[in-house]
Design brief:
- The protein contains 5 helices and 2 strands.
- With about 140 residues, it is an all-alpha fold.
- The chain has one domain (about 1-135): Butyryl-CoA Dehydrogenase, subunit A, domain 3 (Up-down Bundle).
- It has a two-stranded antiparallel sheet with strand order 1-2.
- Helix 1 (about 1-25) runs parallel beside helix 3 (about 70-95), helix 1 packs antiparallel against helix 4 (about 105-115) and helix 2 runs antiparallel to helix 3.
- It starts with a helix and ends with a helix.
Length: about 140
């Protein structure tokens, strides 16, 4: 159950960071246009959205099937992997302002860093999937 709770917390924090990022790319203008109008930015945001939904669906399925150890470990693995992507992309899209204390993004992304390492991180969750599958 700990891994399911971890996946759920990662989803909440990553969702807040992603929402903050989406608002920023809509509001931030460069050369008279929002940076979100840039095709490269849209592709990156779409990839994060897909990975987030994948992690969300797996976490819900793991919660539904609890106490299935394999599903719980898989949900934690996918959530931790997605959180790393959210961290990287959010800070890339925000630029340097994302690291400042004056801007709220750091509240979410610094928490993501901690959550991604919980219970040994994505690699340990992956090993737990294998161990649960073999058992």
């Amino acid at each position: 159950m700990w891994r399911i709770g971890l996946a759920a917390e990662i989803l909440g924090v990553a969702g807040a960071a992603f929402d903050n990022t989406m608002q920023y790319i809509k509001d931030r203008k460069q050369f008279g246009h929002p940076i979100g109008a840039n095709q490269a930015i849209r592709h990156r945001a779409a990839r994060v959205a897909v990975e987030f939904e994948k992690a969300r669906c797996l976490a819900y399925e793991a919660a539904w099937r609890a106490p299935d150890r394999e599903m719980a470990a898989a949900a934690a693995n996918v959530a931790a992997t997605m959180a790393e992507l959210v961290f990287q992309e959010a800070h890339q899209m925000h630029g340097a302002i994302g690291y400042t204390r004056e801007y709220p993004l750091h509240r979410w992304t610094m928490r993501l860093r901690v959550l991604c390492k919980e219970l040994g991180g994505a690699a340990a969750h992956g090993l737990a999937v294998t161990a649960a599958h073999v058992a």
